[in-house]
Amino acid sequence: MTKKYSKFLPTSEDFNLEHFPYYWVTQVHAQYVQNVDHVLKKYGLDNSRRRILLALKSKPNASVSDLSEMVVSKMSTTTKIVYRLKDEKLVDTYSCEDDARITRVILTEEGEKMFYKINDLTNVVLEQSFEGLTPLQIEKMMECLKHIFKNLAH
């Protein structure tokens, strides 16, 4: 273990939870999800389904596997969410022409409408979360998070 990171790790003698970066990552994420879930309640949705709709908006005709990777969720969980959205008529599924084992997902017209409705609501939460930060600070934070993700992903 290198000393330069020791104060940030729970194995340190003088460990303080507030110095542990992942404490703050999980705190921020949990609070964000709680706030988003609260505003989405108006439409009977939750953050998990919002994330799938958002992923589909950015990658139309994605496979369930693609969606699972995009939202960092287990395949079984993603499949359940997709079929729940299908029951709600927000998405539709079809078998891939090249490989029938692959299920592709598309937003329905209702799903498109819902995407825009919930996007407006969740933008309020996003703006609230970034209050007091400059765009440059937000970009730097995102660079750091992407770097950490790449370190963990290999």
From TrEMBL:
One Pfam family per UniProt: MarR
Residue ranges constituting the HTH marR-type domain according to the UniProt record: 1-150
Gene3D superfamilies in UniProt: Winged helix-like DNA-binding domain superfamily/Winged helix DNA-binding domain
Cited InterPro entries: HTH_MarR-typ, WH-like_DNA-bd_sf, WH_DNA-bd_sf
GO molecular function per UniProt: DNA binding; DNA-binding transcription factor activity
Ranges annotated as spanning the membrane: none
Alphabetical keyword list: DNA-binding, Transcription, Transcription regulation
Identification of the protein by name: DNA-binding transcriptional regulator, MarR family
